[in-house]
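Predict structure. Chain length: 412.
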Amino acid sequence: MARTTVSKRLVFHVGGYDPITPHAGAQRRFVREIARFQLIWSVKASIDGPHDGADPMRWSVTTTGPNWRVETDYHLVRWDDVIETFSRRAIYWRIPLGIIAFLDFVVSGALRGYLRTNWHYAGFFLYPFVMFGALILVTSLIGVLALKAGGSIPVGIVVIVVLLAALRAGPWRWLHLDTLFDDWSFSRQYVRKGNRILDQRLDRLAAKIVAAASGSDADELLVIGHSLGAVLAVDLLDRALTLDPAFGTRKIPVTFLTIGSSVLKIGLHRGATRFRAAVARVALSPGIFWGDYQARVDIMNFYNTNPMAEMALPTEDGPVVRLVEFGRMLDHAMYRRIRLKFYRLHCQFISGNDRRAPYDYFMLVCGPVSAKSQTLAADGAVSMIGEDGALISAPRSCSEPQTEPARRPGPR
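Prediction complete.
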């Protein structure tokens, strides 16, 4: 397989429904995790920024090895304001809207689809609603017992009110039920009618990446969607194709990576016809290479699935699916510490590794080998980077033609 090198890369990263996505929190994580990348790959990295903006915040990353240098213009697509809109809602709105979303995804056939494709994800879907129901049941039983013991209805009511207040201050937050209820409420809104603020933002960003694809001096344009951000990234690329049907075929190669993707979270909802059409258009685009990374132990993504087949879409032009093993990327002690922390495991897709592995977020974003070439290679960049951090042999540049077509997975 022909390999391509890059010296300049333009990255647009769309994060998931992440409480720390906004402002400096995401950049601090990036700085902390890229330090691990430098250590295991024997490279150096420096970061300039961040430069805050209304749509993306951005910073520049320069990475170097003994015989290469890469400048990465990194854009973090912001939608923290949308997340905050949901989190600022009063509790008496958040709970009913979350329950309505739960019922909607059940009736629409999404839960049946989750059970069919990945029962772990079905468990993730059910978790906040089952836990909430259990807490309410326990609270009600204690209230009834207090009523019987005290023989007074007002006493029973007071006990229930106090317990509900404690529930909100404690388990409601400790078990992350607040964020998960909001996550599903947002997902239902996205399926049913979209979000006006996001629609306008994605339109502006689509125009920006279309202009970059024809006017930037970058060697590669990389769009990454993590978790629910994969859904928004599909939407973004579909809007870019609407503006320019030849997007990605003229000057700069466009690579699209979905990591820990929630594409099927939305795509398996019977009402998500608009989204499935967008997925099909992106997959069929000759100017966009799509790679999909899935991890077995991450209950928040769909492991070992062909997303096109599961959505009953043509599979000939779907993503190249790569399976990720977190246990082989991390030291044993680290893996043991986080293996039951499901959100932390999910974030390993955007974190640094302890060992060289076929999947490495920072190698994809900041490394000297194109993200497409890394995705197509069975071992990623492992055999392409020496122990001293140098590029091994002389890979082809991005301007040289590919000699092997991208392979697509067939139906399951």
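Summary: The first strand starts at residue 4 and ends at 5.
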